[in-house]
Design a protein that fits this description.
two-stranded parallel ribbon; 391 residues; 71% helix; 1% strand; mainly alpha
Amino acid sequence: MPTDSRDGARRREPARRVAPKRAAQPERPASRRERRAEARAAKRQSREERNAAPTPRVAAATVAEVPVPRWARPLFVLAVLAVLGGVAAAALAIAEMGPAWLDEASAVTISTTLTFALAARTGGRPFVFGGLALGFGLAAVLTGTETLRGGAAVLTAVSAGVLGVMATVPAVRFRGALREAVLALLIAAVGAIAVIGYRPVVSLERFDYLTLGLAFSLALILVYRLGAGFHGLGRRGLFVVLVGTTSLAVTMAYAEMLRRYGSQEMIDGIYDSVGWLRAHARAVPRPIQVLVGVPALVWGTHMRARRRQGWWVCAFGTAATVSVAGIMVNPATGWLEATLIVLYSLVPGALIGYLLIRLDLAFTGPRGRRARREEEAAAIRPEPRRWHALL
């Protein structure tokens, strides 16, 4: 049968052989050297990004912006003017200038303003508590009853002591924490001036114990709300609270135990040392302020910039703030000696607080100077501003 020439000329192409598909081979795991190289590259890239990014301002890192009512600023200015006027009236009364009731008027004004400020700071009802403080102060001054005068003095000391702690803000560095401790003591000193203006006739030991117990209890109640309850403590916070409570109890009980059970030679030696310090340094620091109060304020405000457990530490700062009123009430203590007592207690107490901060950072913070600076820049736990409500 004849065939087409074109079909004959066409060569048959050989059939293509398709190679069978191979199964996918698993990827070879990276060697240890490759993993190290990738980790170094990622670390180098993150360091370059950190250096290129602008560093946030540390001072503004711990302040939360919250809406403020319109009436807050005028009321704040009025409260500041009232406190300044009360302090000026007390200064005139101390200098024996003006009417005899000037110190009592300053006491009522300052105590009412401080109570109002404490209620506003802690999210309470400032007009209600301020009105109650005003009524109680007027009743104590107008009736002249020793019981009412003593009660007004105690409540004023407690309000000023707790307000001094609540008015603090978180501090990223030590110098900021020292500033907060000084501010708390200044607020307590203003309250102590009002305490003297009520002219209380009290037992010094009972006054110290009562004011410290009430102030510490009130601070714990407020901190319970600010620190998110006991479950916000954690192991570290629970340990700090137990150590602080033990230190406070031992410091308070030491003098009483020494007075009752100490030998006469030991007591005479202590009195001689105190007399020598008063003769040469003009004052003697208070142990409860040095060992508990001031270190708690310094360390607590520093911790609050990083963890909310710092509020529980700050509660022990009432041992420093309330003691200012106890120093002022003592009729044997002059104005210069009272000022020096607070100053002599502040310096070693701040040193102990600095050591506690360094110890805390040694266990929980990063190592190295650069790493510490980065940690300070990252300490951005926000809180409301100083004169805004915390709750």
